[in-house]
């Protein structure tokens, strides 16, 4: 963790719910600027791992360091978001009764106090940033529409856009292509690759085709710990991975 | 004074069994002397003398004397008991108890008696009863003497204690003796021993006696009295605590009954049923109606009307519950706050309907005889109806536990509690589970109403008075686990009753409410919360 | 007054409401005082008091709407803040009675003399000063809401749990204020007021003035609410309402956002209570009854939560209905109220204003669809709950 090139460092992390070990002695290191794909069967602990990184769940044991010095187990969700970790949920979660533009505006990096929101006036800088993000996520056309009127895939993009607006150092993206058409999946691959140029990213996904398209290092989780790690080819030929996940 | 001293000298002698008992001759002689008395103190001496014989046969004479029924026949100075009044009176032989003769009232002279004498007779009689055959009578005698301790009785008590075989009665006698010793002129060491005995018995009734001693004596005696008082107080405090625990358990059982149905519907459906209290009320009114009907059509079954009311209340409240679920709540799933408002509306309608049908005033539902009265354990009073309700609520709890853990309906309900979507995709018909659950929860509320009708008034506001407490139980205990409700109900009940003596009923309740509000900060989902990621999904 | 003044918070409808309120503030006193009773335009004094009462209720409903409609906090204890504000005003009015009380004690209110109290409890100090009482009207409910909210929101007590503990809060206060030794007059509460700031409460002019002040205060409350909800803060409130965890993972602190709304709302409710008490002439513990607080919710629901017009319309309409029912067929009022709860939640979840808006939006959408200028949208897409419309844009089967 003294290594300045490490953005996220998990070591020996365990957590259990009512006796069920969701995460078991999990260790994971993510380099700065790296994009990592996490795969694994249901119940492997993928979402719980994200819960731990974002402060929603406290690990029973183990250490979680972010950006070298920050012990994430000591912060809550809002603090961690401010430290620079953005999270997209498995189920796309956007502010349905706000317009697409307002969704981005509420996510823009900036002070997070009540007072600041009362006195807020949108600066030209903010406006430019919003335009930029809307362009990235290809929702410029629909900026004045309510988010509840977006398609499932567009909501996924909007949520990624909201993460970008936060300008985080690390993005955690949970199942970004679930429920997307093939064309939308292609778009998402392009979008994530684009994002990964400037940010560290962890993507959790079941869609092996999508993971292959990303072309990044893969970690396979099983029963709360790392089963196999490496290139997709390496991982998908690991007999243990075939046994528990990919199937023979 | 002299007489009394004399009597005290004589008494132990006379009380010796075999010396005094069953010897008719001296008894008859003493009785005959009533013919010659002229002053009350002569009568008094005779009474004492009779008492000193220790013969149970003197009882009718003394009782007759106290009631003014003892007469002297003027012609021969014979003594008779003459019950009743009129021109011609029956004369009863005081020793045999048989009718001896008849005489006109003018032929008789009454043996006069005054209040002082009556009191003396009562004491003498109780001394006599110390030798009675029945243990109950002996115990009653000892208690009478304890209530009016008299040093003159010490010897009688000593003898009785010696002869006593029943340990419980013996203890009461020793208590009476100790009380008498404290007031006597006996040496200080005896008194201290007596005080210690009284202290160890921990009885509220000797407190004033000991307080008098403490105030008037000095030195060791005073210290002994003070110690005994402190000892008694601590014993009493323990009993008071026990009594409070009991009251708390009793309140807890009522809360358990009222809350458990609520906990089920909240746990399984995530729905707060604000009309739950009205289901309790419906159950109570069902009891009222059933009792009226039984009284009118089958008075012989009066004692068992609750047995009819119980299933009927379950069905009536359960049916209303199912109707509410099918008619209103199923349209509001996923919107718990709206459900809360709609069921509040239902509660207003139900309340007003009951008010219009049965009137706004309280209705009384009688207790069957097996639920009335009370009994004591040590210094605790336990009423039967409360005891039955505690037993009943635990019975209901065990039954529900069985339904939940051992039946397929229970399995379905638990499945829906933990993950509704998954349960539904596994083929569980969640709408049926919901309707059944709501019916069950409401039915339980109905039978809670039957129970509550036995401890309080039945009024249209009955439900309102329990609803907030029931919410608190559910919030405190957490959902999805019946044990949480049990623990919640009894801890709130006991906490309430423990705070009451210090803070008063109202302030106690406020403190409990504030404590729960604070507790929720620590455990937002109650004592027994479901954990895991399904919960917040 | 231009709408741009307040960052676009005041739309045409709200400006209309403000116009109605300000003109009522002028007209009602005129029609009451200047127009002779024989005229058909005359408004009798009792009606002025009644209307004033409705306006206080409207303000109370608006305060609830701020937390429930916009921030998703269903408070079942807002009656408590209203009553606390009312008690603070009542204490001032009590101290104004002075020697004119039954016992003629210069300092102690009658009920304290009756209870044999020798001196004024410390918490009654200062209430002889209007400014102090006015401060307390806002401070006491505000502080309670702040303390309560700070505890509850920080521990993430939400949904029905929160509703139930707010109910427990007002219930605890109800029990507390019933106690004689609390020093607030026990179950009789505070009453027999004589005058306010030297003006007799019985005088028609005072009553008319109180009405005007209520109308103006409501107008101010409407402006404050409108400005709040149209600011970035208001958007955040709605964001917290719809997706609390999303705001948290974006770095916001939903507990602070809720706490601010809850406190502002409580202060508003307290002011409503303070205006209410001199107009009805009494404040007693029954105002804390949980049933009262739930009734506020139904006013808001009937009018339309999440709108500014809604709670005002709802409070006036429901209370007008209540006045009518309790005079004409009192035994049916609870049936009507209960039925209203059920009907509104089942049939009119968005309330009068919300439903009207949805209907107009749907009509506009149909019209523009007819012109073929924009893509076809199913009418439900306009704003019903997000849940039902989430997938409305997804490919529809061809018809």
From TrEMBL, chain A:
This protein's GO CC annotations: plasma membrane
Domain of life: Bacteria
Keyword Nucleotide-binding annotated: yes
Residue ranges annotated for the ABC transporter domain, each copy included: 8-248
InterPro entries from the UniProt entry: AAA+_ATPase, ABC_AA/LPS_Transport, ABC_transporter-like_ATP-bd, ABC_transptr_urea_ATP-bd_UrtD, BCA_ABC_TP_C, P-loop_NTPase
Record keywords, A-Z: ATP-binding, Nucleotide-binding, Transport
Xref: Pfam families: ABC_tran, BCA_ABC_TP_C
CDD domains for the chain: ABC_Mj1267_LivG_branched
Name under which the protein is recorded: Urea ABC transporter ATP-binding protein UrtD
Species, as recorded: Chelativorans petroleitrophicus
Phylogenetic placement of the source organism: Bacteria, Pseudomonadati, Pseudomonadota, Alphaproteobacteria, Hyphomicrobiales
């Amino acid at each position: 963790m003294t290594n300045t090139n490490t953005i996220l460092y998990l070591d020996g992390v365990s957590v259990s719910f009512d006796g069920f070990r969701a995460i078991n002695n999990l260790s994971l290191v993510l380099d700065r600027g790296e994009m990592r794909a996490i795969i694994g069967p249901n119940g492997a602990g993928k979402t719980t791992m994200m819960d731990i990184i974002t402060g929603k769940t406290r690990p029973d044991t183990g250490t979680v360091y972010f950006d070298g010095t920050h012990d994430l187990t000591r912060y809550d969700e809002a603090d961690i978001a401010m430290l620079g970790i953005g999270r997209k949920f498995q189920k796309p979660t956007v502010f349905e009764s706000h317009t697409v533009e307002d969704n981005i505006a509420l996510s823009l990096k900036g002070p997070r106090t009540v007072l600041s929101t009362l006195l807020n006036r949108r600066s030209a800088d903010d406006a430019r940033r919003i335009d930029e993000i809307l362009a990235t996520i290809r929702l410029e056309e629909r900026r004045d529409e309510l988010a509840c009127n977006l398609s499932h895939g567009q909501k996924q993009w909007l949520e990624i856009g909201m993460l970008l607006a936060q300008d985080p150092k690390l993005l955690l993206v949970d199942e970004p292509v679930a429920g997307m058409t093939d064309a939308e999946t292609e778009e998402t691959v392009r979008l994530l690759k684009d994002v990964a140029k400037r940010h560290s990213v962890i993507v959790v996904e079941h869609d092996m085709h999508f993971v292959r398209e990303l072309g990044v290092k893969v970690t396979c989780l099983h029963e709360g710990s790392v089963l196999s790690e490496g290139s997709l080819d390496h991982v998908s030929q690991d007999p243990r991975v075939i046994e528990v996940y990919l199937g023979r | 004074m002299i007489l009394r001293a004399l009597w005290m000298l004589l008494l132990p002698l006379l009380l010796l069994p075999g010396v005094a008992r069953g010897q008719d001759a001296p008894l008859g002689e003493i009785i005959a002397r009533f013919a010659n008395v002229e002053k009350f103190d002569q009568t008094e001496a005779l009474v004492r003398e009779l008492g000193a014989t220790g013969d149970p046969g003197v009882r009718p004479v003394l009782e007759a004397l106290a009631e003014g029924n003892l007469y002297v026949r003027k012609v021969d100075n014979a003594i008779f008991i003459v019950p009743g009044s009129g021109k011609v009176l029956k004369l009863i032989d005081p020793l045999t108890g048989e009718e001896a003769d008849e005489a006109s009232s003018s032929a008789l002279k009454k043996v006069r008696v005054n209040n002082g004498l009556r009191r003396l007779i009562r004491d003498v009689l109780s001394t006599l009863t110390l030798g009675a055959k029945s243990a109950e009578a002996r115990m009653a005698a000892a208690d009478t003497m304890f209530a009016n301790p008299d040093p003159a009785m010490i010897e009688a008590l000593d003898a009785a204690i010696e002869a006593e075989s029943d340990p419980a009665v013996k203890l009461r006698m020793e208590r009476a003796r100790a009380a008498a010793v404290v007031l006597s002129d006996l040496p200080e060491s005896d008194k201290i021993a007596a005080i210690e005995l009284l202290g160890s018995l921990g009885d509220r009734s000797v407190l004033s006696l000991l307080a008098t001693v403490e105030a008037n004596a000095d030195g060791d005696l005073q210290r002994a009295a003070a110690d005994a008082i402190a000892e008694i107080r601590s014993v009493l405090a323990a009993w008071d605590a026990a009594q409070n625990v009991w009251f708390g358990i009793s309140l807890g059982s009522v809360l358990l009954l009222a809350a458990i149905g609520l906990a089920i519907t909240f746990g399984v459906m995530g729905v707060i049923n604000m009309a739950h209290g009205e289901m309790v009320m419906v159950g109570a009114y069902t009891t009222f109606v059933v009792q009226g009907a039984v009284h009118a059509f089958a008075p012989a079954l009066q004692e068992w009307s609750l047995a009819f009311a119980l299933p009927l209340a379950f069905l009536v409240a359960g049916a209303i519950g199912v109707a509410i679920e099918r008619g209103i709540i199923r349209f509001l799933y996923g919107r718990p706050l709206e459900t809360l408002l709609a069921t509040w509306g239902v509660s207003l309608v139900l309340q007003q309907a009951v008010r219009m049908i049965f009137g706004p005033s309280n209705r009384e539902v009688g207790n069957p005889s097996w639920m009335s009265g009370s009994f004591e354990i040590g210094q605790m009073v336990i009423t039967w109806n409360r005891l039955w309700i505690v037993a009943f609520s635990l019975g209901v709890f065990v039954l529900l536990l069985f339904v939940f853990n051992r039946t397929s309906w229970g399995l379905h309900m638990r499945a829906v509690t933990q993950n509704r979507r998954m349960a539904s995709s596994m083929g569980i018909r969640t709408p049926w589970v919901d309707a059944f659950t709501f019916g069950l929860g409401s039915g339980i509320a109905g039978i809670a109403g039957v129970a509550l009708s036995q401890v309080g008034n039945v009024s249209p506001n009955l439900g309102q008075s329990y609803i907030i407490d029931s919410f608190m139980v559910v919030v405190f205990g957490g959902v999805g686990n019946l044990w949480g409700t049990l623990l919640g109900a009894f801890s709130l009940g006991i906490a309430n009753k423990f705070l009451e003596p210090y803070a008063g009923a109202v302030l106690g309740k406020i403190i409990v409410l504030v404590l729960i509000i604070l507790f929720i900060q620590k455990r937002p989902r109650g004592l027994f919360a479901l954990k895991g990621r399904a919960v917040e999904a | 007054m231009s709408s741009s003044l307040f960052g676009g918070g005041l739309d045409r409808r709200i400006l209309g409401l403000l116009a109605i309120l300000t003109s009522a503030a002028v007209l009602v006193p005129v029609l009451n005082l200047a127009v002779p009773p024989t005229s058909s335009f005359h408004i009798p004094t009792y009606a002025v008091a009644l209307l004033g009462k409705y306006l206080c209720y409207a303000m109370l409903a608006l305060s609830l709407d701020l937390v429930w409609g916009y921030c998703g906090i269903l408070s079942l204890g807002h009656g408590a803040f209203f009553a606390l504000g009312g008690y603070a005003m009542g204490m001032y009015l009590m101290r104004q009675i002075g020697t004119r009380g039954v016992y003629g004690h210069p300092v102690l209110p009658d009920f304290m003399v009756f209870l044999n109290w020798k001196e004024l409890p410390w918490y009654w100090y200062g209430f002889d000063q209007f400014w102090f009482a006015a401060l307390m009207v806002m401070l006491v409910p505000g502080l309670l809401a702040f303390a309560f909210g700070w505890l509850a929101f920080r521990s993430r007590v939400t949904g029905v749990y929160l509703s139930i503990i707010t109910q427990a809060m007002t219930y605890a206060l109800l029990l507390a204020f019933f106690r004689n030794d609390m020093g607030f007059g026990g179950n009789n509460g505070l009453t027999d007021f004589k005058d306010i700031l030297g003006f007799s409460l019985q005088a028609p002019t005072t009553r008319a003035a109180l009405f005007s002040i209520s109308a103006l205060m409501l107008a101010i409350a409407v402006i404050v609410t409108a400005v709040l909800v149209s600011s970035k803060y208001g958007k955040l409130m709605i964001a917290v309402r719809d997706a609390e965890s999303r705001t948290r993972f974006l770095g916001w602190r939903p507990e602070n956002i809720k706490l601010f709304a809850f406190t502002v709302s409580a202060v508003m409710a307290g002011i409503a209570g303070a205006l209410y008490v001199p107009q009805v002439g009494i404040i007693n513990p029954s105002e804390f009854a949980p049933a009262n607080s739930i009734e506020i919710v139904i006013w808001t629901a009937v009018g339309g939560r999440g709108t500014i017009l809604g709670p005002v319309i709802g409070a006036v309409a429901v209370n007008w209905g209540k006045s009518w029912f309790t005079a004409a067929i009192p035994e049916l009022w609870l049936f009507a109220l209960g039925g209203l709860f059920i009907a509104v939640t089942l049939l009119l979840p968005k309330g009068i204003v919300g439903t009207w808006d949805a209907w107009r939006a749907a009509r506009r959408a149909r019209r523009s669809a007819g012109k073929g200028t924009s893509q076809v949208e199913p009418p439900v897409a306009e704003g019903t709950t997000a849940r039902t419309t989430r997938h409305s844009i997804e490919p529809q089967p061809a018809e």
